[in-house]
Amino acid sequence: MSKEKLEQYRQRFRSELDSVVDFWLKHSHDKQYGGFFTCVGKDGKVYDELKYVWLQGRQVWMYCRLYRTMERFRRPEILEAAKAGGAFLQRFALVPSSGSPGKCAFCLTRDGRAVKVQRTIFSECFYVMAMDELSRVTGDPDMQSDAEKMMDQLVHWVRVDPSGLGRPPMPGDPPVNSMAVPMMLLCLVNQLSEGRPAVAQKYAEMADWCVKQILQHIQRDGTAILESVSPDGKELPGCQGRLQNPGHALEAGWFLLEYAQERGDVQLQKTAVDKFMEVPFLSGWDKEFGGLFYFLDVDGHCPTQLEWNMKLWWPHCEALIAYLMAYTHSKEPALLERFTQLHDYTFTHFADPEHGEWFGYLNQQGNVTLDFKGGPFKGFFHVPRCLYMCERLLDGLLDKHQG
Amino acid sequence: MSKEKLEQYRQRFRSELDSVVDFWLKHSHDKQYGGFFTCVGKDGKVYDELKYVWLQGRQVWMYCRLYRTMERFRRPEILEAAKAGGAFLQRFALVPSSGSPGKCAFCLTRDGRAVKVQRTIFSECFYVMAMDELSRVTGDPDMQSDAEKMMDQLVHWVRVDPSGLGRPPMPGDPPVNSMAVPMMLLCLVNQLSEGRPAVAQKYAEMADWCVKQILQHIQRDGTAILESVSPDGKELPGCQGRLQNPGHALEAGWFLLEYAQERGDVQLQKTAVDKFMEVPFLSGWDKEFGGLFYFLDVDGHCPTQLEWNMKLWWPHCEALIAYLMAYTHSKEPALLERFTQLHDYTFTHFADPEHGEWFGYLNQQGNVTLDFKGGPFKGFFHVPRCLYMCERLLDGLLDKHQG
């Protein structure tokens, strides 16, 4: 591919990132109570005032990452918004008397009262991401310490004793190695370790454990990535065992590739691309209408998730990052072809030139069926992270560097 | 409409009911461990061995009701299957040490180990339905007492103290009057009271309370039925407050109409039809592709449920019962026209002449997108209950009675 084509991509990701940042700066800030509105309609209008904690944490993280690493986003309004979001989280996200540091709520009212607490680790994961990245732009050691304390609690819940999560053990529901858990923890280890050798050292064994847990999801002689396996890496019975989530596998793919590149682990690099990108891409791509399915059953049964055949924005975001990173690494033209295929589908179907930001939910045929830009699970995260990562990867490919 | 047309309907519902009963008799019985497989594919093949408790209870109820009230189903294999299902429930559904009588699991392994417990009342509701109806065919007073004890616990959870459900109260999540709760409890009062004046007397005030709670869902000057309202009948903020579930409203409609007819309450009969049938039918019917939407937002925002625009089998089943019951009551031709419209859509889109039983999940355009006949929420219940109720209503319209 010509340099000109790569430069065109770079310009497109760059201008789209500007537009997406503007959208959220304009529509999502709650100047009265702090924090961010996350339920915003296609034109940015707030249609529900609930504040989803995953999305509060992710927005703080994304603002800080942009502020810290891209010169054109080093703007006071972005820093102030991130700090206000962080303060909202620190003040309201933690559920009182749920231990130390305790559980985070999943959802808060506009003024910060807890609505719901999930019995999983993910609100806490995004709290860690937010606090760590915020500590890097503010230099506040308390925030860094907050992040690390929560991380240590996460490790305790996952590897030692899950009882603090509040889900009583059930005799018919033995422990499961669920892809989301080691993926998320590996992401957090990377986050906490950047430029901090002592922290990297502290979590080195944890990172190895995460990688091993992720690799256990390669099943069926390497022909499938399954979303849930037993803790010793065996296939589970029934629908749960046969479930594939191509977008999740592709996201794990670029997490693994990044980890492997840093360590110069050639075998793991190859596994990341061959198994966590090619396998889910080839099984997950809809040959009839294009786009990646949300869920599939490895034996071809119909998944029981009603939304299985929908095309969601985030798997396409993760796939774009995965293939561009893989191409940057090996310069294998076939990988750039995949990126091009994904790019064309994604920008044609998800982007909204009229109001900015992306639609999140299409039916199998590729038509928008939920038209909001933000909802309980869609906020300022997958779209800007994809645009940001791809812009940086394209900068690298074109030898352009920015502070 | 001519008697011939009504007779054609009667024949169709009757033969479809026979076919649906045969499907589940053939494919769902677990002769090794007892209970019923509920995850069965389009051809009846089991694709997951998990046993969902709602569906175990519902299948026991439906078998017993057919056995008890329709002569052609008074067959030993149906009674034996119901008794085996009831024994499985009594042995495995109750979660040990969750109080007395305690919580029921939501899902069990094939051999009866609890997989998941919901923090709601519905597994227990279907346990009550199963045990009460089973007691009526077996004459077993212990089963009747089991049902009543569980009912009393449900009433306690709903009206006195919900803490036994295991969901800690959250400051941002005040109590809600959720349509499902009074609907379900009214259904149970009807179930327990039939032919038992002392029991009817015991729960008479409870039934009145349920009706009042259901009527609180009439909102916006009578132009909308909202799924969730405050305990004093006010609209709630945000998406939760604006949510409409047309199928649920229609189901509540025939529960109310049945209740009102028994009491000769003319005003309530009118409300049941005008508010709980016409309002949700007119707002819920898809004028472009036909069929009832699953969820809608009363202000026209996009619901956040990914499946909002899908066409599910059960709202259509409930709507068929509702309109045929309403027509039987008033003989108003417009109501029979609605029934005809629903009938034509339903039998064209959901029924499967090839393998029997009905598909459950269509996209907005009316194409099958999940092709199984049974799944975590679809079992031997809505389809046969609809066919059974409609056959009996048509029997009544045509002056045919059976023992």
TrEMBL record, chains A, B:
Task: List, in alphabetical order, the GO biological process terms annotated in this UniProt record.
Answer: carbohydrate metabolic process; N-acetylneuraminate catabolic process
Q: Which GO terms describe its molecular function?
A: N-acylglucosamine 2-epimerase activity
UniProt entry tagged with the keyword Repeat: no
> Keyword set for this entry?
Isomerase
The pathway that the record names for this protein is: Amino-sugar metabolism; N-acetylneuraminate degradation
Q: What SUPFAM superfamilies does the record tag this protein with?
A: Six-hairpin glycosidases
InterPro entries hit by this protein: 6-hairpin_glycosidase_sf, 6hp_glycosidase-like_sf, AGE/CE, AGE_dom
Entry EC number(s): 5.1.3.8
Q: In which domain of life is the source organism classified?
A: Eukaryota
> Pfam families in the record, alphabetically?
GlcNAc_2-epim
Q: Please report which protein family the annotation says this sequence is part of.
A: Belongs to the N-acylglucosamine 2-epimerase family.
Q: What is this protein called?
A: N-acylglucosamine 2-epimerase
Q: Which organism is it from?
A: Clupea harengus
Organismal lineage: Eukaryota, Metazoa, Chordata, Craniata, Vertebrata
The gene is LOC105893666
